[in-house]
## 1
Amino acid sequence: MEQKPKIKEQSLFTQRRFPCKACGANLIFCADVDALKCSYCGAINQIKPPPLPIRELDLKNALQQIDSKPWHIEEKRNFKCPSCAASFKVDDYIRSTRCPYCNTPIVTNADIFMPLAPKSLLPFDINQKEAKEIFKKWVGSLWLAPSSLKRIYDTDSTLKGIYLPYWTYDSKTHTQYMGRRGIVYYDRVTRRVYIDGREELVEDVVERIEWTPVSGEVYDDFDDVLIGATKTIPRKLADALEPWDLEHLVPFDPRYLSGFESETYQVALDEGFDYAKEVMRYQIQNHVRHDIGGDRQVIEDMRVYHRDSTFKYILLPIWTAHFEHSGKSYRFAINARNGKIVGERPYSKLKIFFLVLAVLAIVGAFFYFGSQDQVGTSTMPHIQVQPHGTIIHLRF
Ligand SMILES: [Zn+2]
Ligand SMILES: [Zn+2]
């Protein structure tokens, strides 16, 4: 574990500059060439990070070294644009952004105020134009989406490229369990019934379970359990962006961040490990059930011991935007490595209204003709519409 400075009182908040070798203009990272590209003269400036191995760090050591006190020393930091000299404030977890006045990329040393700095990242592979196309297709595929949503991808400013902080955890686990194994068998049971006033015996087959107490132990090794360390994107959304091609991680270099927003972690290392342990526990449970065997399993007690736990602090690239509809905010995100899109989505109340009308008309017609033909007893349709939820149930 590399010795990392604790929060330093005198640490200076500074900005890094990446001038073009050809013309001196500010460079931004370009996904198409996997290098920095000058937007003025078009010169390509290669990033050649030192070929360091991507290493796992010892979790126990790191937790002992990290101060237990909160790391945030201020809520907002003052940025001064190196290009237009405008001053503006941003949240202190922002590592890189763009000047809101002239759009100049700004990368800072915000990590030195944190107990840990990222050691590796996956560079952007999908550029903004491609991300917009993915969003456009997604919106087009949405059923009952409001028409206003389709206007969003016409504006550039809404789609932001962000490097999100993630923890990955490895752990070797040993689990002791106690429970019961159930074997299903079938029994014949006779009962008396009365048919047309006459008593008869009927034989039924009933399912029964024979339970046996069991105990045992299982071993599971986990590799790269990924836990989002951001609070900007809901956990559900961040989790849904998997899979990530972590085998292609490159050593961290601030030049990759130029032109994108990036954040320091907002979920602590130990808090992240608690989430990871839950993820692992779920998989261990499946292993235990398999180990118990039989037709049914009950786990009464399960003790999980972790050893040789390690972690990595990495940055992963996404494109994201949020949009307002009927006073509510919705967010979507695109994995900027494989193009997978996930998102919350609004429903058009107007479109739902007409859909319900149409359904009622069909149901009405069905009942009308149904009663004329004396075709008996259909059940009432059950229509449940949730304009702001993610599910529409139409059950008949
Ligand atoms: Zn240039
Ligand atoms: Zn500026």
## 2
Amino acid sequence: MLTEENYRWDETTEIVIIGYGLSGAVAAITAHDLNARVILLEKQPAETHCTCSSIAMGVFLSLSDIKRATEYMTALNQVGSYPELPWTDAETVKAWITYTAQNKDWITRMGGNIKFLSNVAEFPHLPGADSLELWKYQGNGLRMMKFMYDHVAARNIDVRYQVSAMRLLTDNTGRVIGVKVADGRGNASREVNIRATRAVILCTGGFEESEAMKLQYLRVYPMYFAGGTGNTGDGIRMAQEVGADLWHMNCVSARLCAKFPDFPMGVFIDFSGGGWSQRSMKTEKEKAPAGFIIVDRYGRRYMTEELKPHTASYECGWFDSYKLEYPRVPSYHIFDRRRMEYGPLAQLSSGPTGPHLLYKWSRDNVAELRKGWIVKGETIAELAANLNMPLENLANTIDTWNRHCQASSDSEFARNSLELVPLDEPPFYAIRLFPGGSNTLGGPRRNGRAQVLNPFGESIPGLYAAGECGSVFGMLYPAGGGNLAECIAFGRIAAENAVREKA
Ligand SMILES: Cc1cc2nc3c(=O)[nH]c(=O)nc-3n(C[C@H](O)[C@H](O)[C@H](O)COP(=O)(O)OP(=O)(O)OC[C@H]3O[C@@H](n4cnc5c(N)ncnc54)[C@H](O)[C@@H]3O)c2cc1C
């Protein structure tokens, strides 16, 4: 561990915030408005800066009823565990709820352009689910972050792009008193020690882009994510070095997404057409325009394809201990001419094919067919051969699916009857899918004051965390908008408590 004797200070401020996504921006604005001097570090260059926050849909949660929201979060926290051992302690959940209930008003007061989206929680059958309000920043995450960047700029907050935090610096009592950074501005990178007289706040996101951490910590491998290009788990490792406990490391907010060998990120697929992977179909008018199924690598269906957008990836984690493989990794999105011709197969509202335009998906899907991202077969036999999949399985699966469609009833997985469109118009197509999607949730454990805790539950003086770096969510994610809600809530909590630290 680096301690005071080993280093000299190059400069001093009151609060150092590491990472310029939504949580970092909110923490910086809050600390500045409470009269603290702030340095905000971002390792990416300004010109190409892309975060989970800016690539997001821009949906965030607010809450209409604190008591009901507490019931919901309490129920959620016990799934896969039990009351004595919730995924997240009651005090930290309470802090999230108290501040999240203010999110809508906070953004509105700041002048943000938001619109009410829905009340649909990820698990509507759990008690209190109706207390969640999903709001959307108009123009998606990119516009939301532009709005935040403007606020930061208007305050003249000292933002340093291309400066990567490397290690936390402590005094000989273990208090975090600064950060060692690699300053990549100018011609050569140089190491600089920045003293933080009050606190350091970690806003470095998760570990979506660290293969080593994903292998060690997640329930299934490989997993791919559609954002977080700078999120290589740096904040988690830095916190570990100064004694942080970790939590939620095997938890994710994820579904199934495409990953192509010659493109670095996961891509969200618009499975049935209509712009979004999970459609809410209630009336005959909303019937899916095209059919699709998801099969494992042997051509077998294994779940209802009405994917839970932040949970479905857990379905891929089954490991075959005889064959020594994950039979559902990869899985395949199987569709026919109807879906191919319906419109872009990628989601255009977020992720690399969204407004950030890291990849411009073609309107007619033909460019991606030519690249081999979409696999084609004139017949089911040809598709199975091209996928290296047992023909008998795939043919049986499609045949059974078509019979379910004819009967208007999916007797295997009870899929919404409005999605029962047969696969009978050749050619047939497939896209390779992997577990993945939005983001990891694990990182340093924090309390309701956003203080990072050691394995004995004691706070590490001078160290705070916000956002996805040690998210408060455990196995189950409450609803679309949970993470951005957490960035706003815990960005504020961390900054409010950090400025109270004695200089
Ligand atoms: C495609 C997609 C859509 C999503 N849509 C939504 C949505 O609509 N609603 C929702 O609630 N959630 C959504 N999410 C999840 C949500 O966007 C993220 O969880 C959230 O934005 C994380 O914010 P953050 O501030 O914690 O981290 P990020 O926004 O990821 O920012 C972290 C920053 O830290 C920087 N950094 C990392 N290490 C260092 C270092 N050592 N030194 C300096 N800087 C460093 C990174 O470069 C990055 O800029 C989505 C995610 C994806 C991928």
